[in-house]
Amino acid sequence: MAAGSNSPEAFGELLASSGISEDDLDSLIALKDFSGIVGLPPLELIEEQDEEMEKKAMRREIERRKQEEIDKSRVKKVDALGRAYATGKRKTSIARVWLMEGEGKFIINGMSHDLYFPNLDNRVHYLEPFVQTKTLGAFDFRSTVKGGGTTGNLRVCGPLLCTW
Length: 164
Hints:
alpha+beta; Ribosomal Protein S5, domain 2; 18% strand; five-stranded mixed sheet
């Protein structure tokens, strides 16, 4: 005997073909009965929040893809001597920085970095990009910095290291 459209057998077949488990169905039925409980938002409000979250997630994914495309299009310029070059400014400090593969030497305005930045906290901040990328000792770093004090010089060089 064929199952009618309103029979329990028809509902069972529909449920089986939908892939919803009995536990999922029980949860949905229970959610329907939760109206009017103090502190629990209406189901319509929850559904609207889910839609907003999906829109935000889609926007974040689009922005992430755009940033990946920008990163891929950014060309790293290296001269004939194998040096990468960047310039930067912060307040009154201006820095020119060259980075090349080497032994981990840091020269700022012709001085070793430990002489130029005697404060240990400044040195830690300066070397942080290399520590984070596990490349400390793999590159030689040479820079000329003008203007500002030592802290200003430090703050202008740090972001330049992150551009490579």
